[in-house]
Amino acid sequence: MQALSSVERGYDLLAPKFDHTPFRTPETVLDATVAALAELGPFEDGLDVCCGTGAGLLALRPLCAGRVTGVDFSTGMLEKAREAHPYASWVRADARALPFAGGFDLAVSFGALGHFLPAERPALFAGVHRALRPGGVFALPIGTPPPVTSLAHWVLLGFDVAMRVRNLVWRPPFVMYYRTTPLTAVRDDLEAAGFTVTGVPGRFGILLARRA
């Protein structure tokens, strides 16, 4: 049922069990992000873009002295996030049209880029840029692509091919691709949105984008 649904409906259905699946952001990625950001603070208010059930709040909370907010377009995911993190604020919105302006010092997003086609990234990044105060930072961990000789490479390629075939023959589409977000292309889109971008070397390929 999830696979034949829209992205929004699919995540509404998945929400009750999402934290028990491999798709939930692992602690290693959250910890690496906190470590990369710790020296750039202090931060006041933080935003988790495409927050899902709220795992990213575990990274925002120790970094931000003020309020922390999650935004997602799945009602089901937001309901689980509210249960797990009652101290936070939650907003239902499409990340391609974020309803914020200059209210945050730090934004993060974990594992969501595959749900946006490359042509949609400029709107996403422009919205994050608009949501940040001058000097604000957007942290975007992106997994390093596995080598072509690895099993993981072919598994991800096979998944993307299967998704493209599914979206050709079935509506509504379910956008989720693993091979549409190379680091260089994402960096270029961030810079086009007005960010100054630096990278943190390591397994997760964390991009740090600062608004001037």
Task: For the structure shown, list the relevant keywords.
7-stranded mixed beta sheet, Rossmann fold, 7 helices, alpha/beta, globular, transferase, Methyltransf_25
Name of the CATH superfamily: Vaccinia Virus protein VP39
Q: What fold name goes in the CATH topology slot?
A: Rossmann fold
- How many structural units, i.e. domains? 1
Main sheet? 7 strands, mixed
Mean pLDDT: 90
Order of helices and strands: HHEHEHEEHEHHEE
- CATH architecture descriptor text: 3-Layer(aba) Sandwich
As a percent range, the share of helical residues equals 25-40%
Class based on secondary structure composition and strand pairing: alpha/beta
Number of separate strands: 7
Shape: globular
Distance between the termini: 44 Å
CATH class label: Alpha Beta
- Contiguous runs where pLDDT drops below 50 for at least 5 residues: none
| Discrete helix count | 7
Strand order of the largest sheet: 3-2-1-4-5-7-6
